[in-house]
Amino acid sequence: MYSGGIRWLTGLVITGTLVMASQPAALADDDDAITYRQLIMKEMDAESSALGMMISDQIPPDALASQAKALAFSAKGALKAFEPKVPGGEAKPDVWAKWDDFSKRMQTFAQKTDEMAKAAESGNVSAVSERMIDALTCKQCHDTYRNKKN
Amino acid sequence: MYSGGIRWLTGLVITGTLVMASQPAALADDDDAITYRQLIMKEMDAESSALGMMISDQIPPDALASQAKALAFSAKGALKAFEPKVPGGEAKPDVWAKWDDFSKRMQTFAQKTDEMAKAAESGNVSAVSERMIDALTCKQCHDTYRNKKN
User: Fold this and answer.
1) Contact predicate B94/A101, CB 8 Å
2) Cα angle for residues A90, B47, B16 (degrees, 5° grid)
3) Nearest alpha carbon to residue A99 among A89, A113, A112, A84
4) Chain B: closest CA distance from residue A94 (Å)
5) What is the least distance, in Å, from the CA of A85 to any CA of chain B?
């Protein structure tokens, strides 16, 4: 039964409707591009928050390695979501106007997150914590390339 | 600079405040357990939606393998989030009353999602699509173990 698929398809239809309502001039493909990168950011936000709960000793770090790997693989594919030059959502036009800088930052983020995930294989929370500081430069990048939410 | 960490810590504080406001009797550790499993579900929802956009040809499947891997690693660690017996959020008490069934479903989900991610390494969208139907039984499990959102 393809009920899982129906679930996300329903979600996408709802999301798509909202995006189109606020941006009537956008083409369907552009809406998809925006929706996709918003999903990537949403997943990395949840992944890093869950990992953060382990690092800050709020929950046991039983799933430290798998959680760090999930974030690393999301980071690995994240730049692809910005390759279509489709301004909109919270992305500033500078993402594409300063693509060399933006893509370099995203590649560094992916590389350092991967190093963090490798360190997590040992189950050593401190080793992950140290690398997390260096890897998750979310705020610096958001301050430069993301419009603040209203 | 640890601004990434500050970002998720801020998010957690806000989330924690909301949970505590609606459930004043819960202990702080219980709030953390609930927040954690909600993050895990949130990340898998975004991961599967992003993967779904590739399968349904809404976006190019350039990041097919990394996206499937991200979901597989999240699924691998997901059961851990439910091990603390803390009813609340949208989880029905049956999660723990029928733990054998619940944990078996989650283990099967993790196993089949891993098989899907291995198939994704080839970049073959059809191979992922076929396994996705079998792996992502989200709705069946939600119908049984999750209270509907109001």
Assistant:
1) no
2) 70
3) A84
4) 21
5) 13
Suggest the residue from A9, A18, A40, A49 to mutate for an interface test with chain B (most B CBs closer than 10 A).
A49
> Is pLDDT above 60 for A13?
no
Residue B19 near residue B35, CB atoms below 8 Å? yes
A33: buried, middle or exposed (CB in 10 Å: 19+, 13-18, 0-12)?
A: buried
Q: How far is A38 from A24, CA to CA, in rounded Å?
A: 18
pLDDT in tens, B57-111: 999 999 999 999 999 999 999 999 999 999 999 999 999 999 999 999 999 999 9
A88, A30 in Cβ contact below 8 A? Answer: yes
User: How many Cα atoms are found within 13 Å in the side-chain-facing hemisphere of A148?
Assistant: 3
Best to test chain A binding among B66, B86, B128 (most A CBs inside 10 Å) = B66
DSSP A22-80: H-TTS-HHHHHHHHHHHHHHHHHHHHHHHHHHHHTTSS-GGGHHHHHHHHHHHHHHHGG
Structure tokens at B145: 């173990």
